[in-house]
Amino acid sequence: MQSIAVQIALLQQKSVLELQELWKKYFNEPTTIQSKEFFVSRIAYRIQELAYGGLPREQQQLIAQMYVPPEMRKNLPPVGTRIIREYHQVEHSVTILNDGFEYNGMKFPTLSAIAKKITGRKISGRYFFGIDN
Question: What pTM was estimated for this model as a whole?
């Protein structure tokens, strides 16, 4: 068995298809995501989590809440609301959570992080999704 460090280092050398297969192995679900960066970071974390143990649920929630400043929660539609934005002829749907936002099966701390993921550039999430301040 390879060391944890070697397993993680080898992730960079894998193709997206190989990483998708590893995703199924580690997370027990298929995915259509095509981002190598996405897979490497999350699979690396999962490998370490399985080897060394993960954070307790309370600590995970505390960390998630740290990244959603109270001022970012103001003037948002209610929790559970879906925000839909078309960009480059692709419809993008975001769900407002109690402690962040869900987009494409992933949790994000801010709308701006999602807007950057979609556009590839830093942009105000409120502006991108048309939410008035």
Answer: 0.47
